[in-house]
Amino acid sequence: MFHVLPGRCLLCDSRTNRQRNLCNPCEQDLPWLKSSCRLCAVPVHDHVSVCGRCLSEPPPFVSSHAGFAYSWPIDQLLHNFKDHADLPARRVLSELHVKSLGNSLAYDKPDVIVPVPLHRRKERERGFNQSFEVATQLAKLWHVPIDHNCKRLKLTSDQKLLTVNQRGLSVKDAFFTTGTYQGKHLIIVDDVIRRYDHYLAFC
Fold first, then answer.
1. 84, containing H or E segment
2. pTM value?
3. Less CB within 10 Å around the terminal CB: N or C of the chain?
4. CA 69, CA 53: separation in Å to the nearest integer?
5. What is the DSSP annotation of 104-164?
6. CA 104/CA 138 separation, integer angstroms
7. Domain containing 21: what range?
8. Residue 49 in contact with residue 35, Cβ under 8 Å?
9. 41 and 79 within one domain
C-alpha cells in the first residue's frame, strides 16, 4: 500500500514519507516509558531498576514490559483500535510495541506467547481480540508459537472502573487453561494494565 499511496499520520494527518501511518514528530512525542521497573514496569528514575514496592513485595512473575503510559494519544489510538476496528491504528500500535521492546529478548526468546483472552461474547461483539492481534506481530518477529489454550470463562466488568480489590475479585476464577507451562518461558500479552496507581499500555 505504501508503495502506491504515501502514508498519512493518524494523529496530525500529514504525509509521513515512511511505511507507517505515523509521522516521525508525532512518534517521538508519544508517552514512551523510557525508564521503568523491570519487575512491574511502573515508571522509575533512570538509576533505579526495581521499584520500592517490588523490592518489599516481589510480584509472582520474572519481569514486565510496557511501552507507554496510558495517556494521550496512545489511549485514543487504542480506543479507535478496540472499539472501532481501526485497522491502520492496529498496525501502528503493533509496530510501536515491537519497537518499544527493541532487542530486549534477542537472546532470551520465549517458548510461547499467551494473549490474554476475551470472553467469547465480548470477542464476538468486537470482532477480534486486541491482545491476540499484538501477540501475532510478536510471534512473527520472534518465530515462536501463540498459545490458544487459555480461555476466559467470566464476562467481567470494565477494570478501569474498579478499585484494586474489586479488580482482584472480578477476575477471580475468570480464566482457565488446558495448557502445560511448567519449565517454559512465557510471555503474556495484554493491551493495558494497571500497576498500583499507573495505567500502562502494551504489556
1. helix 74-84
2. 0.83
3. N
4. 19
5. TTTTS--SEEEEPPPBHHHHHHHSS-HHHHHHHHHHHHHT-PBP--EEE-S-PPPGGGS-H
6. 13
7. 1-30
8. no
9. yes
What confidence tens digit (pLDDT) does each residue in 19-77 have? 889 999 999 999 999 899 999 999 999 889 999 999 999 998 889 989 999 999 999 99
The terminus-to-terminus CA distance of the chain in angstroms comes to: 29
Structural contact between residues 96 and 30, judged by C-beta atoms closer than 8 angstroms: yes
Q: Which residue has the cell 494497571?
A: 194
Exposed/middle/buried for residue 78 (C-beta within 10 Å: 0-12, 13-18, 19+): buried
**Residues 22, 69: one domain?**
no
CB atoms under 10 Å from CB of 200, counted, come to 27
Q: Give the pLDDT of residue 19.
A: 85
pLDDT band at 3 (very low <50, low <70, confident <90, very high): very low
Say whether both 60 and 13 belong to one domain.
no
Measured CA to CA in angstroms, residue 181 lies from 15, 139, 147, 188 at distances of 46, 17, 10, 12
Q: How many domains does the chain have?
A: 2
